[in-house]
Amino acid sequence: MIASVLAKRAVMAIVTLFGVAVVVFLLLRVAPGDPVAMMIGAGASAADIADLRARYGLDQPLLVQFGIWLAGVVRGDFGVSISLRRDVLELLAERLPATLELAGLACTVAVLVGGAVAVAGTLLRRRTGEAVLDGVNGLLLAVPDFVWALAFVLLLGVLWPVLPLSGRMDPAVSGPFVTRFYLTESVLTGRFALAGDLIAHMTMPVLALALPLAAVIARILKDGLSEAMVQDYVLLARVKGMSELRLVVGEALRNAVGPTLALTGVQFTFLIGGTVIVERIFAYPGIGSMAIDAVINRDLPLIQGLVLVFGALFILVNLAVDLAVVGLNPRLRHG
């Protein structure tokens, strides 16, 4: 049964990615502006422009351009960046790990903070503490991530400069890496001083991304816990003398976490896309910052590669979340 579901999801993933490829290809071609005109010198002749357009295949009909690009993608060739003059797949492989580590750490912080707030709000229900937590949660929910980023720059980078303002690490303490997952590799290899420097550079962007997501998680999980707390199995456990904390964490949480997990998976993919502005503010070298430059320069191959990567990540994360929800819910697992 699981194999059948995975096969259907794989087919749907291929269809979805093909649809994404068609849409982004057509939208970029009908958008105003000529990428060749933006990268060539002012004194270039018509022959030079025609030669450059032919080099990137922009002189072909749209259908031919799409067929050439799609055939390359199937082979793992995403083309060459017009602005950076480098292989698109190579650029994505360099920048994507930085964004994944940033988004993964932000999601972890959001889950921990949002889960703690939801549990605390459930324990303090019908008390003053619950109203205070709901008010703080509403504030976190109302302020977008880039506003938090600017606030942290002003507070922790300028007025009280305790954290680095930009970059991924201090060049003075950098060391050789086997992979592009610098934080993960530093922790696994025991280079904790380097890991500490990486975390210091990531703290402000992580908090900026995590706080709004933590507010969403807290609200959804608290609603789920409130519904679970009035179920018969919780009432029976209370009659048996279980403490309120054990009722919430040990009994209600298991049944309330499903919708929250599904929401977190969807929000994680949006979090990766949301790093665009935050990475720009902190000059963080991820794909978000690169995406802004690609749009400004109308770098068609790079934009197409970025959108396909975002689409693939969205599909993979949602598939993983669906499997996790099934694994946590016995009724779905045996249904």
Concise summary:
This is ABC transporter permease. The chain crosses the membrane at residues 102-124, 136-160, 198-221, 261-282, 302-328. The chain has 335 residues and is mainly α.
3D architecture notes:
- It comes from Pseudolabrys taiwanensis.
- It is a multi-pass membrane protein.
- InterPro entries: BPD_transp_1_N, MetI-like, MetI-like_sf.
- It is found in: Cell membrane.
- This is ABC transporter permease.
- The chain has 14 helices and no strands.
- The chain is mainly alpha-helical.
- The chain has a domain of 208 residues: MetI-like fold (Orthogonal Bundle).
- Helix 11 runs antiparallel to helix 13.
- It is globular.
- 29% of the residues are buried.
Order of helices and strands: HHHHHHHHHHHHHH
- What would the principal axes of the Cα set say about the shape? globular
CATH homology superfamily of the domain at 92-299: MetI-like
Rg, alpha carbons = 24 Å
- Find the CATH topology of the domain at 92-299: MetI-like fold
Work out the helix count: 14
N-end to C-end Cα span:
10 Å
Query: Under the CATH scheme, which architecture of the domain at 92-299 would be assigned?
Result: Orthogonal Bundle
Approximately how much beta-strand content do the residues carry?
A: under 5%
User: What does the largest sheet look like?
Assistant: none
The total count of strands amounts to 0
Low-pLDDT runs: none
Q: In the CATH hierarchy, what is the class of the domain at 92-299?
A: Mainly Alpha
Q: Assembly state here?
A: single chain
Structural class: mainly alpha
Mean pLDDT: 83
Summarize the amount of helix as a percent range: over 70%
